[in-house]
Amino acid sequence: MSQAAELLQAHAEVMKLARLLDREPDELAYLQRMAPGDLRALRDGVTETLYDGNSSLGRLAAASRLLPAGLTATIGQRAFGPLLSARLAGLLDTEKAVDVADKLPPPFLADVAVELDPRRASDLIASIAPSLIGQVTAELVARREYVTMGRFVGHLSDDAITAAIAHMDDEAVLHTAFVIEDRSELSRLFAKLPTGRPAGVIAAAAADGLWLEALDLLKHLHKRQRKEMVLAALALDERAHEAILDTIIAHDLTDEVRLIAEHDDSIERRLAERRCQKG
Amino acid sequence: MSDDAFTTLSDQLRGPAPDGLRELSDDELADLSAAVADARHRQAAALAEAGDRALSHIPRLLRGPIKRIVG
Questions:
Q1: Any B CB within 8 A of A24 CB
Q2: What is the per-residue DSSP string for A81-107?
Q3: How does DSSP assign A62-73, residue by residue?
Q4: What angle do CA B26, B18, A84 make, to 5 degrees?
Q5: Which of A82, A90, A100, B9 could form a disulfide with B17 if both were Cys (CB 3.0 to 4.6 A apart)?
Q6: Number of CB atoms found within 10 A of residue A131's CB
Q7: pLDDT of A201
Q8: In this complex, do B17 and A57 lie within 8 Å of one another by their Cβ atoms?
Q9: What is the band of A108 on the pLDDT scale with cuts at 50, 70, 90?
Q10: What pTM did the predictor assign?
């Protein structure tokens, strides 16, 4: 990962940690200079402490087994709220938790998703109907909760990813892909994009100046997916090409150049010309 | 960074803090430790309140057994 991409990843980690600690990201700005791996380990440690450090959570989950799903949903929404519901979600039996989720409105489930550690509720997330995943995704996209969506991708079934993507615009796909928790899941995410969507993701990068984010994805995609992205970029106008070349030069993205060169044999020459122009 | 500040953070995490965080200053480590402690206390308080609120939604017949489980 380039140094610039590491800085962006560190920023995403600080955002995740701030949410967990109920702090503003600016209050934890001093963490920005830490390595993303250390920040991830810190966040894991905080998560463990909050989830495992209170025996009341287990007792509340045990008590909820006595109650029907509808009543548990009502209590979750009116008494526990999103934060505690998120803490409890992974402690309930999966079948019961799915029934409870079915009875909750998508906006509340989106609130819970923001607070939830997906690793603690992986079976539950994988069991939720794709249509409901789609509705919750629509809520998260409207709130630009890309960090939350990025944490969930690895826990979703293929059908759920397809349903989620249907509710994500190209900008949301790009942002979510960049902050995805498990980068080995990127090729699975992109495999579910319908024809034309990778070109849309490239267009979103051009529109918002997110070339660093887009270029950082290349090494995690299958060769065929990379080719589609590179060809989409080649189809853009000269201004976009210059922006890509400038991003590569500014951040010294040598790995990315090598990957682009597999599908665009003019990249090295154009980089040299651009470097001369910038002088 | 002093070892004390790093140990305090590890204590709050109930396990070793990542070594890379030794680059933080004592003040930064203290702030981080306080943030973790605050989050733990907030969660404990929220749980206590939520338990009481939840009981008001539960049919009277079930309140006894539920209270016995929750403790």
A1: no
A2: HHHHHHHHHTTS-HHHHHHHHHTS-HH
A3: HHHTTS-HHHHH
A4: 95
A5: B9
A6: 10
A7: 96
A8: no
A9: very high
A10: 0.88
